[in-house]
Write a structure and sequence with these properties.
Layout lengths: L1 E11 L6 E6 L5 E6 L2 H11 L9 H11 L2 E12 L2 E10 L2 E7 L1 H11 L3 E4 H6 L3 E2 L8 H9 L12
Protein name: Bifunctional nuclease family protein
Pfam family, one: BFN_dom
GO molecular function: nuclease activity
């Protein structure tokens, strides 16, 4: 089963100074942190803020390439968490056929934002990963999330590979 998630925001891991994308399940308000690279975090942040570059960035090029091949990104799915590494698949339709493309979650998320398509996470990934449930008021503040991250053990912080 796959759970639709939304990008809640970006943070910095206080232990490693690496960016973290926070995915939120609107139904349960659970938050899944995915550590990403600096370039990918910048690409995600630019799209969230609707900022534009003077020239196409890599993820813009990827979107243009998909469109140029008469395909459409339908959804992305974070499919697996294996050996502390997240895996994702980009699902596209081309000429009426579904096409699956293996991708890093950070690249898939950046493309999903540019393609305005849904983001899903496999239920097994949510069960295996360190997931933050929002407080009872269902609105975790940035400070709540920062406190949660700071209280993770060394074995958790920065362990997920891009």
């Amino acid at each position: 089963m796959e759970i639709e998630m939304k990008i809640r925001g970006l943070m910095v891991d206080p232990s490693t100074n690496m960016p973290i994308v926070l995915l939120r399940d609107p139904e349960s308000d659970a938050i899944l942190p995915i550590w990403v690279g600096l370039y990918e975090a910048n690409a995600i942040a630019m799209e969230v803020e609707k900022a534009t570059a003077t020239r196409p960035l890599t993820h813009d090029l990827l979107k243009n390439l998909v469109q140029g091949l008469n395909a459409q990104v339908q959804r992305i799915v974070v499919t697996e968490l294996k050996d502390d590494t997240f895996y994702a698949v980009i699902w596209m339709v081309q000429n009426g056929e579904m096409v699956a493309v293996d991708a890093r979650p950070s690249d898939a998320l950046a493309l999903a934002l540019r393609s305005d398509c849904p983001i899903y996470v496999a239920e097994e990934v949510l069960l295996a990963a360190k997931v933050l449930p929002n407080p009872a008021d269902s609105q975790a503040s940035a400070q709540d999330i920062r406190n949660w991250l700071e209280n993770l053990g060394d074995e958790d912080l920065g362990r997920y590979k891009m």
